[in-house]
Each structure stands twice: as C-alpha cells, then as structure tokens.
Amino acid sequence: MQQNIYDNPEFFSGYYELRKRSDNYNDLLEQPAMRGLLPCLAGKTVLDLGCGFGRNCADFLRRGAKRVVGVDISQKMLDVARRESYGEEIEYINMSMTDIHALNEKFDFVYSSLAFHYIEDFHKLICDIYALLNDGGQLLFSQEHPVVTATKNSEEGGYICNERGEPVSYKFSNYNESGLRVISWFVDGVEKYHRTMGEILTEIADAGFIIEAVCETSPDSEVVKKHPKFKQEYIKPNFLIVRARK
Ligand SMILES: C[S@@+](CC[C@H](N)C(=O)[O-])C[C@H]1O[C@@H](n2cnc3c(N)ncnc32)[C@H](O)[C@@H]1O
Q: Which of 73, 71, 79, 47 is nearest to 60 (CA)?
C-alpha cells in the first residue's frame, strides 16, 4: 500500500509553504538541471509521474507538447494543479504511479520530478514505463540522491560543521542496505525508499533502456553568490537525475 503523505494537511501546508520560498531546492538546484536535459517536446505526448502542482505539465505545453497527462496520488496536489496549471491538452489523473500499467495509451516522453524515491518496487515502475513509451521515447526523472536516502537513523547522517558552524563534510550510513526509510519531514512517519546508485542504473539498463545522461546536481555559481547556504551543495549531491531512451 503506497503512502499518500501529501494529502496529510500538516505535511501539505508545510510543503506548500516551502515551495513558495525563493530559495527552495526545487527551483534553484533540481529544476535547472532537469531543464538542461529536457528533449524537444514539440508535437510530443508526455506523461508526468508524481506531477504535484502541475507546473511542469504547463511548461511542457508551452514547449509545444500536444498532450500531457499528469498522474499523482495526492488529491490535494492535483487540486492546486487543476486550479493553477490547466489547459485543454492537460489531463490530470488521481492514481498511484504503481498502477500506470492500467493506462491505455503510449507516450513519447515520461517525466518525473522528485517522486521515484516514494516507490517501493522500482523494478516494476521502470518496466511499466518502458512498456508505456513509444519506440525511441525518453524517460527523464529526478529523485533524492542515494547518499541522501541512505541513512536509517537521522542522527547518524547529515552535515558536519566546523567551529564557525559552516558545513565542511557530510556523513551517511547504511548505503548498502536498500529498502524503507521512515523520516521526519514536516510530520513524523514519512516513508521513502533507498536504493544504491548501482541498483538504480542497473534496473534501468536491464529493462532495455539506453542510459543517455546521469547528473548529480551541483549549484550554479550565481545561485551560490545569491544564496550562500547553497555552498554546502558542493560537498555532496542532493539529487540524482537520469535520462534514458527506449
Ligand atoms: C516532491 S513532490 C514533487 C511534485 C512535482 N513533481 C514537482 O516537481 O513539483 C512529490 C510528488 O509525488 C507524488 N507521489 C508520491 N507518491 C506517489 C505515487 N505512489 N504515485 C503518484 N504520485 C506520487 C506526491 O503526491 C507529490 O505530489
């Protein structure tokens, strides 16, 4: 049974406020890297898994996509998407991406931003995506980096600071123990899944994909100048991004 934490009111309002901040990691670190790997979408059909507020769905339309399907397990996230990121060519479906094998349609491009680490069965997810793609179609996804998902007990992981309180290194543990992690983020009991870099890339290759790009995010120097806290992102990558072709 997939957890639907974004429909928890306390979690939702915390996440909503976070995304409004001008220094959020999505806008300053993950999205620029994702945009750099986007293929040309003119005339393409797109599936966005874990589409959330639907901002990327709207962006795909602006880039010329002819149809965009956004899937999300959270009704609250889709309520915002339907209110703020709509268009005749966008369809939002309230379903878990663990059920996408039931979609009766093929796509040229499958996209997912920061949602795959919520999925337990990565093997099934990747095989389902492969089956939903047209030949030559591409998958582009981001997720929390395995170095970030690894540690089971939060007290055993995190930045290590010098005497001035500046982060100088990062410690993590349990890297080679894949599986469920339960963390506190806005609320207690948030479930996500750790997989090693080797497992992630091998699952993608085993499904039949050609891996085209692997990116471990690093901040742009302009971002660091404006928001010095992003300097700590030079210590370890926060997000993993993969683009692959069927
Ligand atoms: C960090 S948010 C990212 C939202 C959006 N992709 C973006 O970049 O703004 C993760 C999203 O994944 C969704 N999600 C989590 N588990 C899911 C599942 N099993 N099926 C579909 N969506 C899921 C959440 O509801 C949430 O909207």
A: 47
